[in-house]
Amino acid sequence: MEEGKAHERAxxxxxNFGRGLELMHHYSTASSDTLAxxxxxxxxxxxxxxxxxxxxxxxxxxxxAVAAMHKAYLLPSRRRTYLDLAxxxxxxxxxxxxxxxxxxxxxxxxxxxxxxxxxxxxxxSIPMESKPELQLGTTAAPDVLQLFVEKQEDYRMAVSxxxxxxxxxxxxxxxxxxxxxxxxxxxLPDAIMADLEATDLYALVLLSYFSVFSKVLETRxxxxx
Length: 225
What we know:
10 helices, 2 domains, globular, 64% helix, 0% strand, mainly alpha
């Protein structure tokens, strides 16, 4: 049997299962250690979060999306294939997140927290060319950022949170962790998100400051490039 015909007749379920194993293996052996600098944080990404994902398809989709995005970064010749896989797993995870968010409680909050952290990484790694609506001069913003809105605060609070993040980065010296800055995303208020969508000048100034400090992380974390 010719190889092409054999591929055409492959069981879709088996292909998807194989892809899942490939991505999980890559995450465990490669991607996880690139998500932090400290050994204890690398352990969280490599061991703790996957263990939590055993009982959370939502979080498992997030992990596989990160692995696919990382492979897209490492393998330019197969970039389109892995970007499609990343989009599939990200969308699947987000759908489960939206459906189950109202059930969050003391017994199941960990998968939601971990998934929010995963999505923060994915938002930063979304290639601009794959999101033409996000190019300069448009009014769109990633809908996924709305997931981080939890409190009704104002610009003063947002600036204060950014200052705290920069303080932590400064005291980390040559080894700032990505979570030090990205924690700001968790507390951005609805008003600021709406202003970002409308390309309001005040919101864009805030975003520009965030981007400057995000630039510092580019040399250390592939998903920030």
